[in-house]
Amino acid sequence: MKKGVITKSTGSWYQVKSEEGEIIKCRITGKFRLDGMRLTNPVAVGDEVAIEIEGSEQEPIGTIKEILPRKNYVVRQSPRKKHNLHLLASNVDQAILIVTVVHPMLKQGFIDRFLLMTEPYEIPTVIVFNKADLYQDEDLDAFILLKDIYNNIGYEVLLTSATKGFGIDELKALLKDKCTLISGQSGVGKSTLINSIDKELEIRTGELSDYSGKGQHTTTFAEMHFLQDGSAIIDTPGIKTLSFNHFEPMDVAHNFREFFQYSENCKFGGNCLHRNEPGCAVKAAIEEETLSELRYINYLTLLEEIEGQNYWERHKEY
């Protein structure tokens, strides 16, 4: 048996880099589950695995026999099978979410949805606002507003321009000696930004659709890339939407970090959903403008969405 790490997933086949540095094409046998949840992909890029080698020495083929314990993972509701979950990546040191204020226009709620994926597993997350060269004065004002919101609750925020090279050195410094999940909606310039970090990667880029103003998917499958300094990044396909069929409303309340912190002072403490409960410290802070009303609106939307799934959908037997 050899040990290695999954560096690419194409759905039915997995690329594994062994401890000796070999790249081995592998398949999976048997069923693997994640905490009893049904998965569309039982193995993710970043997983450490034990494999059994078959085939010739010239063309070895491996079978994944065991997934070694994960230190963390990033999971979302499957966009195609709403009762299933999709693993984005495993064993990451941090996540970087790439967004832009313009071209395509930012949907601020997407930032909070992404943070709801990383927060439960205490994965440090950096928010990178790209395409700064396209920002007009009002766009810069929007960036500063959002930067203040997320800085105030402990998230690092960067401003970059992949085409002008602005902010690239700061981004490189963040990646050093880490395994980083890089994600974002289609069209935000993720592939161009990654290429500007390391010229040897040559990740395929795409243009925005003139008709819809939305990005075209240029990354089809998740893949781990190794930078010249030895750091690793996991590039994921552009995300259109994020939903959470595996959460209860209280999971949302506990993973909006500043709301959870303020809940110590709520009348019902950690059991407060911060809507109509008496003595809610979070609602009081929103009214006093101590906490972000934008975040609160997104929080309420997520609560309604999760409660909109009936109980049996949320508790489907896996």
Distance between the termini: 30 Å
Low-confidence stretches: 206-219
CATH class of the largest domain: Alpha Beta
Strand order of the largest sheet: 10-9-8-11-13-12
The whole-angstrom Rg is 21 Å
Report the CATH superfamily of the largest domain: P-loop containing nucleotide triphosphate hydrolases
Please state the average pLDDT score: 87
Order of helices and strands: EEEEEEEEHEHEHEHEEHHHHH
Biggest β-sheet: count, sense, barrel?
Answer: 6 strands, mixed
Summary keywords:
alpha/beta, 318 residues, OB fold (Dihydrolipoamide Acetyltransferase, E2P), Ribonucleotide Reductase Protein R1, domain 1, 9 helices, Rossmann fold
Q: How would you describe the overall organization of this protein?
A:
- This protein is α/β, with parallel strands linked by helices and 318 residues long.
- It has 3 domains: 66 residues, Nucleic acid-binding proteins (OB fold (Dihydrolipoamide Acetyltransferase, E2P), Beta Barrel), CATH 2.40.50; 146 residues, 3-Layer(aba) Sandwich (Rossmann fold), CATH 3.40.50; 66 residues, Ribonucleotide Reductase Protein R1, domain 1, CATH 1.10.40.
- It contains 9 helices and 13 strands.
- Strand 6 and strand 7 form a beta hairpin.
- About 4% of the residues have low confidence.
What's this model, at a glance?
The chain is built from nine helices and 13 strands. With 318 residues, it is of the alpha/beta class.
List the helices and strands and how they pair.
Blueprint (H helix, E strand, L loop, with lengths): L1 E8 L4 E5 L4 E6 L19 E8 L4 E8 L5 E5 L7 E6 L3 E6 L8 H11 L6 E5 L7 H16 L3 E4 L8 H8 L3 E6 L5 H8 L25 E4 L5 E4 L13 H7 L1 H6 L18 H7 L5 H16 L2 H4 L4
Parallel strand pairs: 3-5, 8-9, 8-11, 9-10, 11-13
Antiparallel strand pairs: 1-2, 1-4, 2-3, 4-5, 6-7, 12-13
Helix pairs in contact: 1-8
